[in-house]
Amino acid sequence: MITMQTKSTLIELLRKKSEMYLRDLPETIRIPALDGNRADEVVRPLEDATVDDLAFAILGMEAESRVHHRRLQGLRDLYDLARKRGALGVTTVAAAFADLAGEGGQK
Q: Which domain of life is it from (predicted)?
């Protein structure tokens, strides 16, 4: 019986480093499309990525993070407003804001 010994990949070795977030490194990175330079996004194995690829991937992830943060904050604000209106845990959003439905663009 032949046993195959697997060699650690570069990414696996980096993940074992003591630096804080290296253990969470992805196998691949997504490099978003660049206006005027690249029409499509690129997914590249991390080991093959250039330092510029890392920078563009970071910018793309930061943009996505901002969108998620805004949505999260919007949900928190909606929750707070509903509670201030007396909504209970089983109250729907529609019921909590039913009085606004009549305003629908009227001034």
A: Bacteria
Cβ neighbours of 60 (radius 10 Å): 17
pLDDT tens-digit map of 47-65: 999 999 999 999 999 999 9
Q: What is the pTM of this model?
A: 0.67
Spatial CB neighbours of 29, under 8 Å, sequence gap ≥ 6? 43, 44, 46, 49, 53, 54, 57
Q: How far are the Cα atoms of 1, 6, 53, 72, 105 from residue 13, in angstroms, in the given order?
A: 28, 13, 20, 35, 59
- The 10 Å CB-count burial string (b at 16+, else e) for 76-96 is eeeeeebeeeebeeeeeeeeb
Rounded distance, CA 68 to CA 74, Å?
A: 10
